[in-house]
């Protein structure tokens, strides 16, 4: 399933948050969205996911969701959003309830996504027994369980330390390489964007408009931290954002 954003604009009261956003989100690619604080990245993601309706424009989908898809647009949040009283397997199984799947089918899906996220041996653990990185792997497993048409990730690695982020990026690349998925990935972190994005959309400060869309042709599996080509792209992204990030920062301090 491909998504198209057609001339999206949005205001909260008198505050213009997004303006003239037109964008293609083709199946099988990871699209990263970067931009200064408060430029409307999360708002745009909520609109793509149908949680909020834009004041102008629309989000269109084309084509079928993948076979076995139980929830076409599925979120992964920064804070993991796991139920503390449910085990790892229980948290993943939760999203499979009420879909008319038999017990065996549900168990097979849970086993499959826990294996893909290397969590099988932690199936019976509770979230509080896990590290932050593992909790986020559970959240990713839970998202994969519904076989979404598009996975919507809002700063999924921001709560994690640098080493854990690195490991999670490797996990995401591995997951995508074995079974390509479609994702929209909002991040502050330009290093994450150049590691994970096939295309990177740079938004201006509020109201967020598209400043540039950067395409990276290097396959995800071939990208490494410290790669000179990627660092050059990252520097270019920062050039696009630096002044606006400073202005956005000052604006927030004024409030
Ligand atoms: N429900 C809402 N009602 C009113 N204003 C809102 C609402 N949600 C977001 N905003 C405002 O819209 C602007 C964009 O917010 P949003 O969270 O989308 O930006 P962002 O780019 O994701 O920010 P950050 O990088 O800091 O996470 C901000 O000024 C925010 O205060």
Please characterize this protein's 3D structure.
The structure is a single chain. The protein is α/β, with parallel strands linked by helices and 255 residues long. It folds into two domains: 165 residues, P-loop containing nucleotide triphosphate hydrolases (Rossmann fold), CATH 3.40.50.300; 67 residues, no CATH class. It is built from seven helices and nine strands. The strands form two sheets. It has a six-stranded mixed sheet, sandwiched between helices. A three-stranded antiparallel sheet has the order 2-1-4, with helices on one face. Helix 4 runs parallel beside helix 5. The longest helix has 27 residues. The protein is globular. Bound molecules: adenosine-5'-triphosphate. The site of adenosine-5'-triphosphate has 12 residues, from helix 1.
Keywords:
255 residues; alpha/beta; Rossmann fold; 2 domains; six-stranded mixed sheet; three-stranded antiparallel sheet; 7 helices; 37% helix; 23% strand; globular; binds adenosine-5'-triphosphate; ATP binding; AAA+_ATPase
């Amino acid at each position: 399933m491909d998504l198209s954003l057609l001339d999206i604009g949005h205001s909260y009261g008198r505050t213009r948050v997004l303006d003239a956003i037109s964008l293609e989100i083709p199946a099988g690619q990871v699209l990263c969205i970067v931009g200064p604080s408060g430029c409307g990245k999360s708002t745009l993601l909520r609109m793509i996911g149908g949680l909020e309706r834009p004041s102008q424009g629309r989000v269109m989908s084309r084509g079928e969701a993948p076979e076995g898809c139980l929830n076409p647009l599925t979120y992964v949040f920064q804070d993991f959003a796991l139920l503390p009283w449910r085990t790892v397997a229980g948290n993943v199984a939760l999203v499979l309830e009420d879909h008319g799947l038999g017990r065996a089918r549900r168990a097979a899906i849970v086993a499959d996504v826990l294996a893909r996220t290397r969590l099988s041996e932690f199936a019976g653990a509770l979230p509080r027994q896990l590290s932050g990185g593992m909790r986020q792997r559970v959240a990713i497993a839970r998202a994969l369980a519904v076989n979404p048409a598009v996975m919507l990730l809002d700063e999924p690695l921001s709560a994690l330390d640098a080493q854990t982020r690195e490991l999670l990026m490797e996990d995401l690349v591995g997951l995508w390489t074995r079974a390509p998925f479609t994702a929209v990935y909002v991040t502050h972190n330009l290093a994450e964007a150049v590691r994970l994005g096939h295309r990177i959309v740079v938004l201006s400060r509020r109201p967020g408009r598209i400043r540039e869309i950067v395409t990276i042709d290097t396959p995800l599996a071939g990208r490494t931290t410290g790669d000179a080509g990627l660092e050059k792209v990252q520097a270019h992204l920062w050039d696009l954002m630096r002044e606006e990030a400073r202005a956005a920062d000052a604006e927030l301090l004024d409030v």
